[in-house]
Amino acid sequence: MKTVKLNNGLEMPILGLGVYQIPDPHECERVVADALSIGYRLIDTASAYRNEEAVGKAIAKSGIARDELFITTKLFLNNATYEKTKQSFADSLKKLQLEYLDLYLIHQPYGDVYGAWRAMQELYRDGKIKAIGVSNFGTDRVMDFIEFFEIPPAVDQVETHPFHQQIETLKFLKENGVQLESWGPLAEGKHGIFTNGVLMKIGNKYQKSVAQVILRWLIQRDIVVIPKSTRKDRLAENYDVFDFELTEDDLNLIAELDTKTSIWGDHRDPEKVKMLYGYAKKM
């Protein structure tokens, strides 16, 4: 598995499994077990996904050595304070049945993220987390953390796919030593992405699926990808992207698909912020 080196020297697999929207515990455990059997070693979950326990069970049953795995979870905004971060982290670690995390992210740029980061820095220094980062943070918020804190974010996990390519964000993060990680790399199947003519044509050239073309495109941009699937055949397909390489012409064609528009919405939109707080209150 190809890896990327984070700004603290930690090696992170460039391809992993995301388990967003797999709330059923039995299904989630099966999916993670299937992924691990195929060869996946990076698993990305979050407290807000409500499936950390299922992920932990699959890991425990896998028999895979801990140091071969790279496990990520995230702190949701309802726990984004100094004190609550410590407790939420402990809760996540217990559910995952782990002694430490490889990567812990602030899930949303809301709440007392400064208090949360101070707590995360302490957990990092104590060896409980190997790397700390953020998710859904704009470049201005990332720069704020870089300038304000002793330990800068190692990762920023943001929506990145052919319709929202994050070209300027990627440039900024690379220049500042922060790894871009893509959530929603397949645009959650929206806007006809799997029947897109450009992507299908490129796929036919290499005898690869549209999903494989997209994942390969992201990997060639040095972006970490965590596609989700509940089907074992698709998990295997998504993993099989290291035996071909897109040409400059291919990359230029894909670049033309960029609409610079999110499928989720703007994290600076007050209504989106209100919606996320509403979800947090139900947790």
Verbal overview:
The protein is α/β, with parallel strands linked by helices. It has one domain (11-281): NADP-dependent oxidoreductase domain (TIM Barrel, Alpha-Beta Barrel), CATH 3.20.20. The protein has eleven helices and ten strands. It starts with a strand and ends with a helix.
Task: Determine the N-to-C terminus distance.
Answer: 36 Å
Can you tell me the CATH class? Alpha Beta
In terms of DSSP E residues, the strand content is 5-15%
Q: Give the overall shape, derived from the CA principal axes.
A: globular
Strand order across the largest sheet? 3-4-5-6-7-8-9-10
Rg over alpha carbons: 18 Å
What is the CATH T-level topology? TIM Barrel
Give a short account of the largest sheet. Answer: 8 strands, parallel
What structural class results from the helix and strand content? alpha/beta
Please work out how many helical segments DSSP would assign: 11
| Whole-number tally of structural domains | 1
Helix content: 40-55%
* Strands, total number: 10
Order of helices and strands: EEEHEHEHEHEHEHEHHEHHH
Q: What are the segments in which pLDDT stays under 50 over at least 5 consecutive residues?
A: none
The assigned CATH architecture is: Alpha-Beta Barrel
Describe the protein's topology:
Blueprint: E1 3-5, E2 11-13, E3 17-18, H1 25-38, E4 42-44, H2 52-62, E5 70-75, H3 82-96, E6 103-106, H4 113-125, E7 132-135, H5 139-148, E8 155-159, H6 167-175, E9 179-183, H7 197-206, H8 210-220, E10 224-225, H9 232-239, H10 248-255, H11 270-281
Helix pairs in contact: 1-2, 1-9, 2-3, 3-4, 7-8
